[in-house]
């Protein structure tokens, strides 16, 4: 249940372990491509971050807060 932090953490740890194992099976050449793409997303420019934030806000207003 979600009201049991230990259980939630256990599921999260299992998922992260599964993802890590899956990534380790990728071809070596693919690791660099994935790393570059993740870094591009995580380290987005300020302009891109603002644009995405503005689009999110517009979408919330358009839907009346019903996401």
Low-confidence runs (pLDDT<50, min 5 residues)? none
What is the terminal-to-terminal distance?
24 Å
Total helices: the number is: 3
Radius of gyration: 18 Å
Number of domains: 1
Structural overview:
The chain is mainly alpha-helical and 67 residues long. It has one domain (5-63). 79% of the residues lie in helices and 0% in strands. It is built from 3 helices and no strands. The mean pLDDT is 82.
Feature tags:
79% helix, 67 residues, mainly alpha
Helix-strand layout with pairing:
Layout: H1 5-24, H2 28-42, H3 46-63
Give a quick summary of the entry.
This protein has three helices and no strands.
